[in-house]
Specification:
There is one protein chain. By secondary structure, the chain is mostly helical. It has seven helices and no strands. The model has no long low-confidence stretch (mean pLDDT 86).
């Protein structure tokens, strides 16, 4: 390689850096929550679903699992939000944060995309709308698959 090629720096769009950093931080937070509260669940500290039942019914459909482990029908988020004092439910918060990592990255980097990248702005809008629909679908359209 010539000296000129070595001295050239790769330019990365600031929106990409912001997106990556936001994803990284969000991912670390989600993993940390999962690890801490998942371990507390493994030590049988204040669980919503007894571990023995979770293992026994893990291979069943969701409706069967929830019926036999907790005698409930799961619709929306109420069952989950009402049990946030339980270690397994708090551990699921970590999973939710991991699922939201791309959303956080999009929202954080959106201002840097600006008017110079109109296609990206449109794509960001579509992605945000899709995430919001996925999050609120169990509330506005209960019983139509998913939760």
């Amino acid at each position: 390689m010539s000296k000129q090629q070595n001295s050239q720096e790769i330019k990365i769009d600031p929106a990409n850096i912001i997106f990556a950093k936001a994803m990284e931080v969000t991912t670390y937070i989600g993993i940390l929550i999962m690890l801490i509260f998942g371990l507390l669940y493994l030590f049988n500290i204040n669980s919503f679903v007894p571990m023995k039942d979770a293992v026994a019914f893990w291979n069943h459909p969701v409706s069967v699992f929830w019926h036999y482990t907790c005698n409930i029908r799961v619709h929306g988020y109420g069952w989950f939000l009402n049990n946030l004092s339980c270690m397994d439910c708090i551990s699921m918060v970590g999973i939710s944060i991991l699922a939201l990592a791309p959303f956080v990255g999009i929202v954080a980097s959106w201002p840097k995309v600006g008017a110079t990248h109109r296609i990206l702005t449109l794509l960001y809008f579509v992605l945000v709308a899709e995430y919001l629909f996925a999050i609120f679908k169990p509330i506005i359209l209960p019983g139509l698959g998913g939760h």
